[in-house]
Amino acid sequence: MLLEKAVMEDRPPVRPLSLGCFAARWRRLRARRNQMLGADLMRDPAWDMLLDLVSAREEGQELSITTLCQGSAVPMTTALRQIDRLEQLSLITRRPHPSDKRQMLVSLNAATAPRIERLVAMFRDMLAPA
Question: 18-127: what CATH class?
Answer without folding.
Answer: mainly alpha
